[in-house]
Design goal:
Layout: H1 8-15, E1 29-34, E2 62-71, E3 74-83, H2 90-109, H3 123-132, H4 146-156, E4 161-165, E5 168-171, H5 172-182, H6 198-208, E6 212-215, H7 217-220, E7 229-232, H8 237-240, E8 257-263, E9 271-276, H9 277-291, E10 298-301, H10 309-318, E11 323-326, H11 329-332, H12 335-344, E12 349-352, H13 354-370, E13 394-397, H14 408-414, E14 420-423, E15 435-438, E16 450-454, E17 458-463, E18 476-482, E19 488-489, H15 493-499, E20 500-502, E21 525-535, E22 541-546, E23 550-553, E24 556-559, H16 560-568, E25 573-582, E26 588-596, H17 604-612, E27 623-626, H18 662-675, H19 693-707, H20 713-718, H21 722-735
Parallel strand pairs: 1-2, 4-11, 6-7, 10-11, 12-13, 13-14, 26-27
Antiparallel strand pairs: 2-3, 4-5, 8-9, 9-19, 14-15, 15-16, 16-22, 17-18, 18-21, 20-21, 21-22, 23-24, 25-26
Length: about 750
C-alpha cells in the first residue's frame, strides 16, 4: 500500500501505455472481493439498509464484485456483474455466471486439482459441444477404393465425355482403358510440380523413395538425380498402348495409401501427408446430400495437382459421371481467359480460393460494362445464355479465409440462389474439407468469417492449451476427429505424434473394423490444426486465424518458419523474421526482415536469388527490409508489431537504367503503381520486385488501359524485365494485335 496515493494519470504516463477513449488504459476486466465489513448506518429514529443501484455508466468492460455477508446463521457471498452491453449480450453473461459457479463447485469438490484442469462447462453445455454439434454418424462405401468406384462409373456412362483439355477429350471408357494400360500395382501417387526448385524436388524424390516417375520427356530432362524409373507419357505411350485395357486385379484395400501431398514445413523442409483411399471416398459420401453432384455437372480442374483442392476437383467429376475441364496453366493465370473458358465450357461446379474469385468478379464487372443487360441471357435460363454468361450451379470456396464483403458485387448481380456459394474450411491432414457453410446475402451484414459446421462424418472440438473444451464464444484451437483424419506424415514419426493425438473425450471409443484393421481396436485420433475458432450461439464456427507462424496466401499453405529457417542458413544473415502484411490494395504479401552479419554486407537481390533456388515462387517474400537489429518486447521476444513497413524504394537491379522511350516511360509508371515500388529501371524483373500471378493480371489490365494493346499474359512470364516487355509491346503495336491470350475455340463434340 506504500504507493496507493500515486495519481492514476501519473501511473498511466509512467507505463507509457497507448491511450484510447474506447477502453480503460490499465485493464478492462476487474474482479473485486469486498471482505471488509461495512459499518451500519445509524440515524436517530430511522432504520437504514443498503440498496443495490444499477449503474448507467461503467468503468471497465467487465466487472465481478463479491462481498462477504455475515449473518447470525453464518457467512455467505453476494455479488453482481457489470458489463458493457456493446461488447456482451445478456445470454453470454448468463453463461459466464454458470461457468463461474461450476468452477467454484469444482474447487470445493477437488481442491488439489490444477487450475487448468478444473471444470468450467455445465453438463448441458458438454452434451451440446461433444454430441449435439458433432453428429458424425454417416455411412459410405467403406469396402471400395477410388479406382473401383471410378470403374463402376465407367460401366454406367462409358461413352460420356470424362476429361477435356483444349481441343482434346476422352470418354469414360477411353480414360479407363488408358489408365488400365498404365497402372497395375495399386501404388500411391506423389504429385511433383515441375515449377518447384531443383533442391525441393530433390528432397521430395529422396524422402518419398519413389520407384516410378511419370512425366514428359521435356520435363524429365530437368529433374535432379534420383533412383526412380522414368516413364514419359508422351514418348513411351506407344509401348504402353500394347498393354491390356481390362481392369486389373485389385491389389489394394481402402486402408492403403491413395496419395502423398507435400505441404510447407516449419523446419525448412516440406512434409508429406499420408492419405488413404478411405479418407477420400468418405469425403464425397459425406457431402453428397448437400451438393447432389451428377452426370450433368461440368467441373474445372483449376488448381495444381500438387494442391489437395485438385483431389476434390478430379474425383468430384469422375465419381459422378461429370465432365472435367483441365484448365491450361496460363489460362489459370489470366482471369479474363478463365472466365471465357467457364462460359464456353458451361462449367457448373467451380472451386476457387477467395482471392482468385475476386479476380473473376472484376472480370465480370468489366464485361457488364461492355455488354448491357438487355443483350445478355436471362439469369437462370440456360437456354438463353450468351458467350459471356456463366452456367454455374455451385461455387465452393476453400484454401484461405473468406472476406464476405468481397462478395457484395457478385450478390448484387446474381443473388444468392443461382449459383449457390459455399464456404468450406479444410486442411490436407484431414482430407481437403472439414466444414460446410452455404452463403447468402444476409451474411454481408456480418464481418465474421463463418465456416459453418463439420462435415457429417467429422468432429470439431475447440480446446484450450490443457485440452479442455472452451465455452461458446471463447476462442480455442480447432481439433478435428473422424474418418477424414489421415495417417500422419511420411518419415516424421515425432511430428505425427505431436499433431495427431489420442482423443481425450473418446478414450474408450474405437474405430470400427476395416479390411486391414480386423479387430477395430485402433483408438480415435484428433488432428491439432493450429487454427483458432470460436463457436457462435447456434453452433456454427467462426474462423479467427492461426496461432502459429503458418499462413495461407492465394490458397497456398505457407510455414513462415520454413522461410525463416532457410534465410537463417545463409552465411551472411545473422537473424531474420518473416511476416504477412496487407498492402495498400488489401492483398496479403510476405515481408522478410533481415539483420546481416555485422562484418559482411548482402544485397536484396542476392537474398532473393538464394531463396529462388530453394523455394517455390509463392513462398519467396514480396519485400525485404534490412535492419540493424530486430525490435524486442519487454520480455525479450521479437516485437512483430513494431517491425516497420517496407519502403516503396525496394532495392532493384544492381545498375539502374532509366527509361529510354515513351513505352518504357509508361511501363515504369505502371510497374511502380502495381508493385508499390518507387524507383524502377528497365532492367528490373517484374517477379523479382515482388510480382506474382495476381499482380500480373493487374499489370496486363493497366497496360491495356494506358497503351491500348492487349498483352498476352504468357509474354509477361517470358519477358519479365521491363525492357523486354516494352520491346514486345512495340511489336504488338506494329502488328495491331488485339489478342489477350489465344482464343479458346468451341470443340467439336463426338
Amino acid at each position: 500500500y506504500a504507493n496507493q496515493d500515486v495519481p492514476f494519470e501519473q501511473v498511466v504516463d509512467g507505463l507509457e501505455i497507448e491511450r484510447s477513449l474506447s477502453y480503460n488504459p490499465l485493464f478492462q476486466v476487474m474482479f473485486a472481493l469486498q471482505n471488509a465489513p461495512l459499518n451500519a448506518l445509524e440515524l436517530p429514529n430511522l432504520k437504514a439498509q443498503y440498496l443495490a443501484v444499477e449503474n448507467q455508466r461503467i468503468k471497465f468492460d467487465l466487472s465481478l464484485v463479491l462481498e462477504e455477508i455475515e449473518t447470525e446463521k453464518g457467512a455467505y457471498l453476494e455479488g453482481f456483474w457489470e458489463y458493457d452491453s456493446d461488447l456482451f449480450t445478456p445470454e453470454r453473461i448468463t453463461r459466464m455466471v454458470d461457468h463461474f459457479q461450476t468452477l467454484l463447485k469444482g474447487i470445493v469438490a477437488n481442491p488439489q486439482q490444477t487450475v487448468g484442469e478444473l471444470p468450467l462447462l455445465t453438463e448441458p453445455e458438454k452434451q451440446q459441444l461433444l454430441v449435439e454439434w458433432n453428429q458424425t454418424q454417416t455411412s459410405y462405401p467403406d469396402h471400395y477404393c477410388l479406382h473401383q468406384l471410378f470403374e463402376e462409373q465407367v460401366k454406367r456412362t462409358p461413352d460420356a465425355v470424362a476429361v477435356v483439355y483444349s481441343d482434346q477429350q476422352l470418354t469414360y471408357n477411353e480414360l479407363n482403358c488408358r489408365a488400365n494400360q498404365l497402372a497395375h500395382y495399386g501404388g500411391a501417387y506423389v504429385p511433383l510440380d515441375p515449377e518447384y526448385p531443383i533442391e525441393r524436388l530433390s528432397f521430395m524424390l529422396e524422402d518419398a523413395q519413389l520407384s516410378v516417375l511419370l512425366t514428359q520427356q521435356k520435363l524429365g530432362e530437368n529433374l535432379p538425380q534420383h533412383q526412380a524409373s522414368i516413364i514419359c507419357l508422351d514418348t513411351d505411350w506407344e509401348k504402353m498402348a500394347e498393354n491390356s485395357q481390362s481392369n486389373p486385379e485389385n491389389r489394394v484395400t481402402p486402408d492403403n495409401l491413395a496419395y502423398v501431398i507435400y505441404t510447407s514445413g516449419s523446419t525448412g523442409k516440406p512434409k508429406g501427408v499420408l492419405v488413404n483411399h478411405s479418407n477420400v471416398v468418405r469425403l464425397f459420401a459425406a457431402t453428397d446430400a448437400w451438393y447432389n453432384f451428377n452426370s450433368q455437372d461440368v467441373w474445372s480442374l483449376f488448381h495444381s495437382y500438387a494442391f489437395d483442392f485438385s483431389v476434390w476437383e478430379m474425383w468430384g467429376a469422375l465419381l459422378y459421371g461429370g465432365r472435367l475441364v483441365v484448365v491450361p496453366y496460363l489460362v489459370t493465370r489470366s482471369p479474363e481467359a478463365f472466365y471465357q473458358l467457364l462460359c464456353q465450357e458451361k462449367v457448373t461446379i467451380l472451386n476457387q480460393t477467395p482471392t482468385a474469385f475476386r479476380q473473376l468478379i472484376q472480370v465480370e464487372e468489366s464485361l457488364k460494362e461492355s455488354f448491357p443487360p438487355l443483350s445478355r441471357g436471362v439469369r437462370g435460363d440456360r437456354s438463353s445464355t450468351t458467350d459471356n454468361d456463366l452456367s454455374l450451379r455451385l461455387v465452393i470456396f476453400g484454401g484461405e479465409a473468406l472476406e464476405i464483403n468481397s462478395l457484395q458485387p457478385w450478390f448484387q448481380r446474381h443473388g444468392d440462389q443461382c449459383p449457390q456459394l459455399v464456404n468450406m474450411y479444410g486442411i490436407t491432414e484431414t482430407t481437403v474439407h472439414v466444414t460446410y457453410r452455404p452463403l447468402s446475402m444476409t451474411d454481408l451484414d456480418s464481418t465474421a468469417s463463418v465456416i459453418g459446421r463439420p462435415i457429417p462424418d467429422l468432429k470439431v472440438y475447440l480446446l484450450d492449451q490443457h485440452l479442455q473444451l472452451v465455452p461458446v464464444g471463447v476462442p480455442g484451437e480447432m481439433y478435428v476427429g473422424g474418418a477424414g483424419v489421415t495417417k500422419g506424415y511420411l518419415n516424421r514419426p515425432e511430428l505425427t505424434t505431436e499433431r495427431f493425438i489420442s482423443s481425450p473425450f473418446e478414450k474408450d471409443e474405437v474405430i470400427p473394423p476395416t479390411p486391414l484393421n480386423k479387430g477395430g481396436n485402433e483408438p480415435s485420433k484428433l488432428y491439432k490444426t493450429g487454427d483458432l475458432a470460436r463457436y457462435l450461439p447456434k453452433g456454427e464456427l467462426e474462423y479467427l486465424g492461426r496461432i502459429d507462424n503458418q499462413v495461407k496466401i492465394r490458397g497456398f499453405r505457407i510455414e513462415l518458419g520454413e522461410i525463416e529457417a532457410l534465410l537463417a542458413s545463409h552465411p551472411q544473415i545473422w537473424e531474420t523474421v518473416v511476416i504477412v502484411r496487407d498492402d495498400t490494395t488489401g492483398d496479403k504479401r510476405l515481408v522478410a526482415y533481415i539483420v546481416p552479419q555485422s562484418e559482411k554486407t548482402i544485397t536484396i537481390n542476392e537474398i532473393r536469388q538464394f531463396l529462388k533456388a530453394k523455394l517455390p515462387g509463392y513462398m519467396i517474400p514480396n519485400a525485404f527490409v534490412i535492419l540493424d537489429t530486430l525490435p524486442l518486447t519487454a520480455n525479450g521476444k521479437i516485437d512483430r508489431r513494431a517491425l516497420p513497413p517496407p519502403e516503396s524504394s525496394i532495392e532493384t537491379s544492381d545498375k539502374y537504367v532509366a527509361p529510354r522511350n515513351p513505352i518504357e516511360d509508361i511501363l515504369v509508371t505502371v510497374w511502380s503503381e502495381v508493385l508499390k515500388v518507387e524507383k524502377v529501371g528497365i532492367n528490373d524483373n517484374f517477379f523479382e520486385l515482388g510480382g506474382h500471378s495476381l499482380l500480373a493480371t493487374k499489370l496486363v489490365a493497366q497496360i491495356r488501359d494506358r497503351l491500348k494493346v492487349e498483352l498476352p499474359l504468357r509474354q509477361l512470364f517470358n519477358s519479365a524485365t521491363l525492357a523486354e516487355l516494352a520491346q514486345g509491346i512495340e511489336q504488338l503495336k506494329q502488328q495491331k494485335s488485339d489478342t489477350i491470350v489465344p482464343t479458346i475455340l468451341p470443340r467439336k463434340r463426338k
